[in-house]
C-alpha cells in the first residue's frame, strides 16, 4: 500500500505518503493564498523524500473540507485528475477528521478551522477517531462552551472562545495524519470492498472526493433593471 | 501526421468546462459542460457557481472527450490549459487539473492565454494561420483587436474595449428588452424581424482614431430610448430595437477591424469569441472584407464560444514551435496580458 494524501482546505498546503505502516514523508507550507502554485511541488517533494515514484501510489486521498472554497477545489480536482491518470482509487476525508486524528486525544473536544467571514468550520469529537457532530459552520461565540478546542480556527478567536480552552496539539490537518487515518481504514479490507462501501455512501471515514461547502454561493437574483433616464 | 503529438486542452476561464483533443491541427474531440443555465436567473455569470460547476464537470468532461476520440488518457502526449485571463477561481480549477494530468501522465504542461487560443482555434477548421493576421475577438468578457505575427510566439494588442465587452452589452440590452440570458443569441434572433436602421443608436469611439471600443454608452442609450417610450405609454417593437442595437455594435466592430487591416497592411482578418457566432456580425464582416479585398476567417460557432479544442490547438502550436513547457507551479492569472501567449 502507498497512500498519497493531501489537504488544501486550510492555509496549510500539505502532502504525505503512507505505506500502510508509517508516514514515509510529509511536507507542509502554510500560505493561504497560493494553494494552486504550491500543491504539485509539495507532492513532488514528498515523493522525492520517500524515494517513491508516482507509479507506486495505490490510493489518492484528499481532504474534502469544509474549507475556503478556492483552495479546497485545488486539492480535490488535483486528487481526481491524478487518480484518473494513475488509474488508482481516490477518496475524500473530512478535513476536520484529519485534524482531530492528528490530536491523538482520547477524550472529548471540538475542532475549528477558519471559515472566513468571522465564522469557523467545526465539529465535535468523542476522541481523535470519533466525530459526534458536524461539520458545521457557525460564529465562534456560538460553539459549545463546555469542551477544549483544537485547530487554527479556535486560536484565531482565542479571545472569544477563551484562551484557556485551547489545546496544545497540531493546529492544521497535516497530511501525515490524513494519510494515516486513511491507511487505517484501507488496511485489512480489499480495495474493491472499500470502494463499494464508499460508493454506497456508508463508509464512516472515506467518501467520494467531493467538496463539503456548507454554504450556498453568494448570489442575489437581480431586481428589475435600474432606470437610466435623468 | 500520425507522429504529431496528441494534445489535451482544458478551458475553465468562465462558465464552460471545455475539453478538446487535437493531433496537430486535426480536431479529435471537443466536449463542453456549461453552467450557463445556473447563471441565467442571476443575469450574469456568478463566479462561485461557475467554479463549483467546473469541479463537478472536470473529470467527466475529460472522460467524454477521450470517449469521443476513442483514446485513453495514457495516449495523451501533452496537456494545455487556459492560464488566464478569466475568472480567478474558475481558472484555478482547470489549471490544477491540468497540472495533475501532466504530473500523473508524465507529459509536458503548457499554460496558455485564452485570447491567443481563440485565435489559434481557427486552424482546426481552416488550416495554418496566415502570418501575420488581424484578429477581432469579441465575447462576453473580451473585445480586442490583435495583430498576430505568430500565434505561438507573438501577439500584439492594437485596441480593446475601454468599458463593457461587446457580449456584455448584448446581455444588458437583452435584459432591458425582456430577453433571456445570455443575450447574444436572443438579440440575434429578434433582430432578424427588425430593421437595423429603425433607431440611430450611437457608435462609441467610431471616429476617435484609436482601435479601442466602447459599448457602455450604447447600452445606456438603448435603455434610455426604451424607458422614454415606455413612460410615454408606447409599445416597444423589440425586433427593431434589437436590430438597431446589434447594427451599432457590429458596425463599429467591423469598421475598426478593417481599419486595423488597412493600418498594418494585413489582408487576413480572423473573428473569434462568442459574439463571432452573431449572424449579422458575420454577414457585415464578409461584406466589408469583400469590398476591401481582405480575406475573412471565422470558425464555426461551436469553435467561437469558449471550448477546450482552442486550448489544445494553441498547445499543439507551442509543441510544434519547440516552446519550453510550463512549470508545475504556474499560477492562474486572471489578468494575463495578451502579450503573454504562454506562461
Automatic annotation (TrEMBL), chain B:
Reactions catalysed: L-threonylcarbamoyladenylate + adenosine(37) in tRNA = N(6)-L-threonylcarbamoyladenosine(37) in tRNA + AMP + H(+)
GO MF assignments: iron ion binding; tRNA N(6)-L-threonylcarbamoyladenine synthase activity
Highest taxon listed in the record's lineage: Bacteria
Domain Gcp-like, first and last residues per copy: 27-312
Predominant subcellular localization, coarse grouping: cytoplasm
Keyword Acyltransferase on entry: yes
Subcellular location: Cytoplasm
Binding site for Fe cation: 114, 118, 306
Cofactor(s) this protein requires: Fe(2+)
Alphabetized UniProt keyword annotations: Acyltransferase, Cytoplasm, Iron, Metal-binding, Transferase, tRNA processing
EC number(s) from the headed UniProt entry: 2.3.1.234
Cofactor binding note: Binds 1 Fe(2+) ion per subunit.
UniProt-annotated binding residues for substrate: 137-141, 171, 184, 188, 278
Gene Ontology terms: biological process: tRNA threonylcarbamoyladenosine modification
Xref: Pfam families: TsaD
UniProt KW Cytoplasm keyword: yes
GO (cellular component) term, any one: cytoplasm
The family this protein is said to belong to: Belongs to the KAE1 / TsaD family.
Function description: Required for the formation of a threonylcarbamoyl group on adenosine at position 37 (t(6)A37) in tRNAs that read codons beginning with adenine. Is involved in the transfer of the threonylcarbamoyl moiety of threonylcarbamoyl-AMP (TC-AMP) to the N6 group of A37, together with TsaE and TsaB. TsaD likely plays a direct catalytic role in this reaction.
Protein name, entry field: tRNA N6-adenosine threonylcarbamoyltransferase
Upper taxonomic lineage: Bacteria, Bacillati, Actinomycetota, Actinomycetes, Streptosporangiales
Amino acid at each position: 500500500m502507498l497512500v498519497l494524501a493531501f489537504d488544501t482546505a486550510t492555509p496549510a498546503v500539505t502532502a504525505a505518503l503512507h505505506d500502510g505502516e508509517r508516514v514515509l514523508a510529509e511536507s507542509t507550507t502554510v500560505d493561504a493564498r497560493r494553494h494552486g502554485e504550491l500543491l504539485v511541488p509539495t507532492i513532488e517533494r514528498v515523493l522525492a523524500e520517500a524515494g517513491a515514484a508516482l507509479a507506486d501510489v495505490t490510493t489518492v486521498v484528499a481532504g474534502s473540507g469544509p474549507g475556503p472554497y478556492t483552495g479546497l477545489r485545488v486539492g480535490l480536482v488535483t486528487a481526481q485528475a491524478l487518480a484518473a491518470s494513475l488509474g488508482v482509487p481516490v477518496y475524500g476525508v473530512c478535513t476536520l477528521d484529519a485534524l482531530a486524528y492528528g490530536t491523538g486525544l482520547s477524550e472529548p473536544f471540538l475542532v475549528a478551522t477558519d471559515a472566513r467571514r468571522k465564522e469557523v468550520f467545526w465539529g465535535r469529537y468523542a476522541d481523535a477517531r470519533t466525530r459526534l457532530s458536524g461539520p458545521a459552520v457557525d460564529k465562534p461565540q456560538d460553539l459549545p462552551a463546555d469542551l477544549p478546542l483544537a485547530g487554527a480556527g479556535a486560536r484565531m478567536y482565542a479571545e472569544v472562545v477563551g484562551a484557556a480552552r485551547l489545546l496544545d496539539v497540531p493546529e492544521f490537518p497535516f497530511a501525515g495524519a490524513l494519510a494515516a487515518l486513511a491507511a487505517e481504514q484501507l488496511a485489512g479490507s480489499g480495495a474493491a470492498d472499500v470502494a463499494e462501501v464508499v460508493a454506497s455512501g456508508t463508509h464512516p471515514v472515506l467518501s467520494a472526493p467531493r467538496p463539503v461547502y456548507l454554504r450556498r454561493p453568494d448570489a442575489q437574483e437581480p431586481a428589475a433593471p435600474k432606470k437610466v433616464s435623468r | 501526421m500520425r507522429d504529431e503529438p496528441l494534445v489535451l486542452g482544458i478551458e475553465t476561464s468562465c462558465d464552460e468546462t471545455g475539453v478538446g483533443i487535437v493531433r496537430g491541427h486535426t480536431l479529435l474531440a471537443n466536449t463542453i459542460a456549461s453552467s450557463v443555465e445556473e447563471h441565467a436567473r442571476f443575469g450574469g455569470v456568478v463566479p462561485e457557481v461557475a467554479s463549483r460547476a467546473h469541479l463537478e464537470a472536470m473529470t467527466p468532461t475529460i472522460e467524454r472527450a477521450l470517449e469521443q476520440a476513442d483514446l485513453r488518457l495514457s495516449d495523451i502526449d501533452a496537456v494545455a490549459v487556459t492560464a488566464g485571463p478569466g475568472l480567478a477561481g474558475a481558472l484555478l480549477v482547470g489549471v490544477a487539473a491540468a497540472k495533475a494530468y501532466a504530473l500523473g501522465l508524465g507529459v509536458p504542461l503548457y499554460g496558455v492565454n485564452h485570447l491567443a487560443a481563440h485565435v489559434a482555434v481557427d486552424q482546426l477548421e481552416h488550416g495554418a494561420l496566415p502570418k501575420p493576421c488581424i484578429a477581432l475577438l469579441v465575447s462576453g468578457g473580451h473585445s480586442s483587436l490583435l495583430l498576430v505575427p505568430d500565434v505561438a510566439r507573438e501577439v500584439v494588442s492594437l485596441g480593446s474595449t475601454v468599458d463593457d465587452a461587446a457580449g456584455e452589452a448584448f446581455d444588458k440590452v437583452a435584459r432591458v428588452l425582456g430577453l433571456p440570458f445570455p443575450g447574444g443569441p436572443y438579440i440575434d434572433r429578434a433582430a432578424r424581424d427588425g430593421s437595423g436602421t429603425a433607431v440611430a443608436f450611437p457608435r462609441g469611439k467610431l471616429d476617435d482614431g484609436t482601435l479601442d471600443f466602447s459599448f457602455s454608452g450604447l447600452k445606456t442609450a438603448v435603455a434610455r430610448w426604451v424607458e422614454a417610450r415606455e413612460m410615454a405609454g408606447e409599445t416597444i417593437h423589440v425586433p427593431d430595437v434589437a436590430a438597431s442595437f446589434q447594427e451599432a455594435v457590429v458596425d463599429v466592430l467591423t469598421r475598426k477591424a478593417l481599419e486595423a487591416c488597412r493600418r498594418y497592411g494585413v489582408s487576413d482578418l480572423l473573428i473569434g469569441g462568442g459574439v463571432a457566432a452573431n449572424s449579422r456580425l458575420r454577414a457585415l464582416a464578409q461584406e466589408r472584407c469583400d469590398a476591401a479585398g481582405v480575406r475573412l476567417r471565422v470558425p464555426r460557432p461551436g469553435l467561437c464560444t469558449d471550448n477546450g479544442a482552442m486550448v489544445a490547438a494553441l498547445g499543439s502550436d507551442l509543441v510544434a514551435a519547440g516552446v519550453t513547457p510550463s512549470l508545475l507551479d504556474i499560477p492562474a492569472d486572471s489578468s494575463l496580458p495578451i502579450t503573454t501567449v504562454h506562461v
